[in-house]
C-alpha cells in the first residue's frame, strides 16, 4: 500500500519582500506544487494523500485563495486528508467550517476534524491529532495514542508540531514525546508517523517510520530550511504482520531562497560575485539574500551597486541581509582627481572625501553615497 505524505502547504502565504508580479507567481507555484501531487500519485499508484497540518497560511483567507486551493486539491484525483495545524486550527474562525469551504469542498477532500481513528478502508486507518487552537496545552499525540492497542490493522498517525528531542524549548506543553510514539510503533499500534510543522525534510528517531515531509515549496531561506520542496512516497507492506515500511522523497518544489556570503574588497571580487549571480538558473523563481563583507573604494562600491541593481531586475528578489553585512567604504587617494573638476566643485569633492573618511557614521554614509552617485553619473561606476 502506497500513499503520499506532505505538509505545510500554507496556501495563501505572502512574503513581504516579493514585489511586482513575483508574489502572484510565488502563490501560483505553491498551488502548482499541490496539483503536481496528482502526477506523483498516479506514477507510484498511491491510494491517498495525507497533509500533516498547516494546509492554509491562516484562517482568514480571501475567497479566491480558498476556491483556487480547493481546485488544486481536486486535481490530485485521489482522497486527500487534511489535518488542521497551528496556522489553521479548528477554532471558532476555522477556514474548514466557513460556508465557502464547506460548499466547494471536492468529494476527494476529507478534513481530519476529530482526534482519533478515521477509516480509510477496511484494514487501513488514519489516527489523527488535529489542532483546535494555536497553543495546545498538552501533547495531542500522546492523547490519541493513550488507549490504542495493536490490532490487525495498518495505521498511519497524522500529527503536527515539534518533537521533544528536536525542539530547543523542552518545556513547551504541546511537544510530541518521541518515547510514546516509539513505544506505539514497537507495540504495532501504529506503523508510520506523518508529521508536519518542520519545513525541511527530516527523519525523526531511528525507526525509519517517523518523518517530517517538509513544505513542498520553499517558505524561508536556507539557513532556516535546509531541505524543502519534497513529498514523501510511503510504502507499507500490508502482507507482512510487521508492516515493513519504505520512504522515498520526491522533489517537486521549483522556487529557491538562497543566501550567499561573499567577501568583496576588490573589483575582481565584485566581478566574481557578478559571475556567481549570472550562473544561477531560474532567476525568476530564485530569491537571493546577500551577506557581504569588505572595505571598498567609492569606485568599487559604485560598481557593486550597479551590479546589484542589474540582478535585482532579473531575480524574483535580490537584496542585502543587513544583519550579516559589513561593508565599509574608504575613498582611495587620487580617486577623484581625474574628473576634470576645478574651483568650487573640486573643493566640494575634497570635503566629501574627508567626511567619508573621518566623519561620524551618518555623515560618512551620506558623503559616501554622494561620491558614489558622482562616479555613476560620470560613468565610472558602471559594472
UniProtKB/TrEMBL annotation:
Drop me one GO molecular function for this one: exonuclease activity
Keywords for this protein: Exonuclease, Hydrolase, Nuclease
Q: Does the keyword Transport apply?
A: no
Coiled-coil regions, chain positions = none
- Write down the InterPro entries for this protein, in alphabetical order: Calcineurin-like_PHP, DNA_Repair-Maintenance_Comp, Metallo-depent_PP-like, Mre11_N, UCP033093_metalloPase
The UniProt record lists the keyword Hydrolase: yes
- Which residues belong to any copy of the Calcineurin-like phosphoesterase domain? 1-164
Write down the CDD domains for this protein, in alphabetical order: MPP_Mre11_N
Q: Which family does the record assign?
A: Belongs to the SbcD family.
- Protein name per UniProt: Nuclease SbcCD subunit D
Give the originating organism. Mycobacterium kubicae
Amino acid at each position: 500500500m502506497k500513499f503520499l505524505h506532505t505538509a505545510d502547504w500554507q496556501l495563501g502565504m505572502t512574503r513581504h519582500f516579493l514585489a511586482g508580479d513575483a508574489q502572484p507567481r510565488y502563490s501560483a507555484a505553491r498551488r502548482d506544487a499541490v496539483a503536481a501531487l496528482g502526477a506523483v500519485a498516479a506514477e507510484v499508484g498511491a491510494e491517498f494523500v495525507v497533509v500533516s497540518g498547516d494546509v492554509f497560511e491562516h484562517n482568514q483567507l480571501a475567497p479566491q485563495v480558498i476556491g483556487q486551493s480547493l481546485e488544486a486539491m481536486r486535481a490530485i484525483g485521489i482522497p486527500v486528508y487534511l489535518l488542521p495545524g497551528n496556522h489553521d486550527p479548528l477554532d471558532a474562525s476555522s477556514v474548514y467550517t466557513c460556508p465557502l469551504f464547506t460548499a466547494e469542498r471536492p468529494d476527494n477532500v476529507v478534513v481530519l476534524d476529530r482526534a482519533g481513528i478515521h477509516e480509510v478502508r477496511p484494514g487501513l486507518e488514519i489516527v489523527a491529532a488535529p489542532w483546535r487552537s494555536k497553543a495546545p496545552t498538552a501533547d495531542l499525540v500522546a492523547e490519541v495514542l493513550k488507549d490504542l492497542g495493536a490490532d490487525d490493522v495498518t495505521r498511519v498517525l497524522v500529527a503536527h508540531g515539534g518533537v521533544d528531542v528536536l525542539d530547543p524549548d523542552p518545556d513547551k506543553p504541546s511537544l510530541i514525546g518521541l518515547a510514546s510514539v516509539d513505544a506505539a510503533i514497537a507495540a504495532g499500534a501504529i506503523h508510520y508517523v506523518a508529521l508536519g510543522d518542520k519545513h525541511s525534510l527530516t527523519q525523526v528517531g531511528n525507526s525509519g517510520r517517523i518523518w517530517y515531509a517538509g513544505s513542498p515549496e520553499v517558505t524561508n531561506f536556507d539557513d532556516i530550511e535546509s531541505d524543502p520542496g519534497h513529498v514523501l512516497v510511503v510504502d507499507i507492506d500490508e502482507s507482512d504482520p510487521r508492516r515493513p515500511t519504505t520512504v522515498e522523497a520526491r522533489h517537486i518544489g521549483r522556487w529557491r531562497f538562497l543566501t550567499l556570503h561573499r567577501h568583496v574588497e576588490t573589483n575582481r571580487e565584485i566581478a566574481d560575485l557578478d559571475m556567481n549571480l549570472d550562473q544561477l538558473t531560474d532567476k525568476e523563481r530564485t530569491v537571493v539574500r546577500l551577506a557581504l563583507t569588505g572595505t571598498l573604494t567609492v569606485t568599487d562600491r559604485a560598481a557593486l551597486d550597479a551590479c546589484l541593481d542589474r540582478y535585482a531586475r532579473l531575480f524574483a528578489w535580490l537584496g542585502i541581509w543587513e544583519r550579516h553585512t559589513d561593508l565599509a567604504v574608504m575613498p582611495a587617494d587620487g580617486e577623484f582627481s581625474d574628473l576634470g573638476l576645478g574651483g568650487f566643485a573640486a573643493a566640494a569633492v575634497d570635503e566629501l572625501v574627508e567626511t567619508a573618511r573621518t566623519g561620524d557614521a551618518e555623515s560618512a554614509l551620506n558623503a559616501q553615497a554622494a561620491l558614489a552617485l558622482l562616479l555613476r553619473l560620470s560613468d565610472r561606476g558602471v559594472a
